[in-house]
Amino acid sequence: MVKVLASIGMLLTYTAAISAANTPRWADNGTKTAPIEVTDTMAYDSIKWSENLDAVTVVAKKPLVKSELDKMTYDVESDPEAQANSVLEMLRKVPMVTVDGQDNIMVNNSSSFKVYVNGKPNNMMSNNPSEVLKNMPANSVKKIEIITNPGPKYDAEGVGGIINIITTGKGMEGYSLTVGTNYNTQGRIGANMFGTVQSGKFTVSGRYSYTPIRDNRVFNTI
């Protein structure tokens, strides 16, 4: 007996190699993929196949969105697009968050929200979060949590929700510098840097990006 292990609710797919004898129903005589919903543990022989298959490979795909009782979590680190996008661009993919054409952010259909970094309020996000998140590379973020019903510990009474950004490092207190790569529409590879310096209520953030056909510098003081 071959057992397939997976997390609860995870969607598994199998890829089946089909022999020539099975071609009347699957004419391409190649491989097919079909979804299978499983529990924690399921037996291989409990799956009912409609064809006689020579071999079966079960592949687990980790979901990017995780829903919990009090929050929604987007796994930025597992999204390949995070390597080339800003945090603001990734927010467009996060459930319960809306970013319009002018980069205005809404959480749970409300423009009243707070932005936390690693579970704590962040001064540089309070005035113009869109501008800061636009200049923050997504590859510096592990996940984004959307807390739509914050409890007393968040001190967020009267707001539509909280965007809690979990970074891959120690966060944005003090100073930080992130270096990454970017790609333009012509497939050219460039480089970008994003840095912040925070001291009390004073914060300066800056971004530098370069591609072979364009040199773009953007500096923001908040």
Automatic annotation (TrEMBL):
Q: Where is the TonB-dependent receptor plug domain?
A: 81-162
Which BP terms from GO are recorded? Answer: siderophore transmembrane transport
Instruction: Show which residues constitute the signal peptide.
Output: 1-20
Give the molecular function GO annotations.
siderophore uptake transmembrane transporter activity
Which cellular component terms (GO) are annotated to the entry? cell outer membrane
Q: Which UniProt keywords apply?
A: Receptor, Signal
Q: Which InterPro entries match?
A: Plug_dom (IPR012910), Plug_dom_sf (IPR037066), TonB-dep_rcpt-like (IPR039426)
The protein's matches in Pfam families, at most eight in alphabetical order, are given as: Plug
- Can you name this protein? TonB-dependent receptor plug domain-containing protein
List the source organism.
Segatella copri
